[in-house]
Amino acid sequence: MRAAWWLALPAGGLSVLAFSPFDLFPLAFVSLGVLFALLRRARSTRQGALIGFAWGMGAFLCGVSWLYVALNRYGGVPMPLAALAIALFCAYLSLFPALVGALFSHWRTGGRYADAVLFAAVWMLAELGRGWVFTGFPWLSIGYTQTPPSPFAGYFPLLGVYGVSALVGVVSALAVTCWRGGRRSAWIGGGLVTLTMILGAGLARVAWTEAEGEPIRVALLQTAIEQDLKWRPDLVQEWLRVNAAMAAAPEADLIVLPETSLPMLVEHLPEGYLDLLAADARVRSADLVVGVFHRDEQGRIYNAAVSLGQAPSQFYAKHHLVPFGEFSPPLFGWFYEFADIPMSDQSPGPAVQAPMALAGQRVAINICYEDLFGRELIRTLPEATLMLNLSNLAWYGRSLAQPQHLQIARVRAIETGRPMLRSTNTGMTAVIQPDGRVAGVLPQFERGALEVEVRGYTGMTPYARLGDFPALALGLLGLLGGLAGRRHASHPARASFAPERESQ
Fold it and tell me: CB 3.0-4.6 Å disulfide test: which of 113, 190, 219, 387 passes with 250?
């Protein structure tokens, strides 16, 4: 058992190399294949849970350790407490692969193909649960590894990221099963995998949506203001000057400043500041989107975006807030005795907000963490023609957070069949086409403007119409199929597992 635990830990860490910026997407199949092989040898439900937990700790400690930077360097949490907090958070996330290990070890049949389907179904349902429980944290869902050039990217418009996670799971399990099952099984399994890849490559060529109207000129601004300098009172006037100067420079139809670009509540801005920004935009017949903090008449604070310029001013308030960073979960108020996080008592905006009418397009805004939740972004469809993400990842320093977030945005573009525009403070400011191709990106931590032409898109992908329901249905069917296979397995096959479990 100890050897299995120590194999599962690096196998989980290996999965991180399948994500951006490494993009070695075949390693996702290797990582899950090792996990599946270890779980098939587990002698009890408990052993399966421990193997799954070890895999999770390897994956999350390597993949989201950048959260430590936010807590320690910028949040002021002492190093031992920050390290403990990240370890506990990764342990919580690891409970989901632990659940996969426990359920698979308990329900497995010993059948070659039934177990592969069962593993993929339980894996996908656990990932979906991780993206929902306690408001959700779907970062590092294994499906994100399959952005182009992976042949599995063609499944995103149909099944979304969780459906692609299920495909990665079943292909990984089939590869292990067929490798150990002799020549005939290898031919069958290899044929199924090849057919899945060919179908995915074909689906990637399907244009689910189409361009509408003339291109517009877009300028996505990257202010590159360090997080530890952003809130210094003696530098506030300098940051306001930087934002105004950058917004006034481009010749574009749509200009975008990143999330919380103005480091204060709107009501505290110098008198006439927003009017100046609006006037500069109107002179050029342009629209400007600015990330702001807004307080309403009831005293509620919102992480928001406001439009200024040619079109009437419009407003968007972030709906899906980040626990601990933007609001305190119940019973966790003590956390802020150790952490110093500005504007950490925010209120969520409405769940459904209309796209902004800007530069002749209908622009659906989402702010930072919100683009992790595809089921929420599709609420603006089919009305929206462009997707726009405003982010501030300066909290995480020079880490894996920026490229991982860009990869997530690529999946959202493919799922929705819409261009995804990204304006970030420190990176990665980018334009992503509906096929997931990055059409332009600025270097990280450099001040600048990404100026490109984009076209709006109309139409609906299957995922935009149905959300995660097809993936959920397939997962439940796979689970039921696996359980049915367990009930109908021969008595000798089932008996072979019984003494091993009882011996534990």
Answer: 219
Quote the domain boundaries for residue 365. 211-460
Residues near 351 by beta carbon (within 8 Å), at least 6 away in sequence = 319, 376, 379
- pTM listed for this prediction: 0.93
451 is an active site residue: no
Let me know if 214 is a catalytic residue.
no
Q: Is residue 504 part of a domain?
A: no
- Number of structural domains (the chain) is 2
Identify residue 207 by its one-letter amino acid code: A
394 and 471: one domain?
no
Residues 339 and 454 in one domain: yes
CA distance 158 to 138: 19
**Residue position matching structure tokens 């690096």:** 10
pLDDT in tens, the chain (504 residues): 678 888 999 999 999 999 999 999 999 999 999 999 999 999 999 999 999 999 999 999 999 989 999 888 888 889 999 999 999 999 999 999 999 999 999 998 877 788 999 999 999 999 999 999 999 999 999 999 999 999 999 999 999 999 999 999 999 999 898 876 666 666 777 788 889 999 999 999 999 999 999 999 999 999 999 888 888 999 999 999 999 999 998 999 999 999 999 989 999 999 999 999 999 999 999 999 999 999 999 999 999 999 999 999 999 999 999 887 777 776 666 666 666 677 778 899 999 999 999 999 999 999 999 999 999 999 999 999 999 999 999 989 889 999 999 999 999 999 999 999 999 999 899 999 999 999 999 999 999 999 999 999 999 999 999 999 999 998 999 888 877 766 665 444 443 333 333 333
* Residues 274 and 407 grouped into a single domain: yes
Q: Which of 90, 318, 326, 370 is catalytic?
A: 318
Does residue 250 sit in the same domain as residue 296? yes
User: Do 277 and 180 fall into the same domain?
Assistant: no
Question: Residue 503 domain-assigned?
Answer: no
Residue 351 and residue 412 in one domain: yes
| Active-site residue, from 62, 90, 178, 368 | 368
Asked if 318 is an active-site residue, the reply is yes
Q: Are residues 123 and 19 in the same domain?
A: yes
Q: How far apart are CA 222 and CA 240, in angstroms?
A: 14
- Inside any domain, residue 337: yes
Residue pair 485/128 in contact (Cβ under 8 Å)? The answer is no
φ, ψ for residue 366 (rounded to 5)?
-140, 150
User: Catalytic: which of 62, 90, 178, 259?
Assistant: 259
Residue 452 sits in the same domain as residue 478 = no
Q: Is residue 385 part of a domain?
A: yes
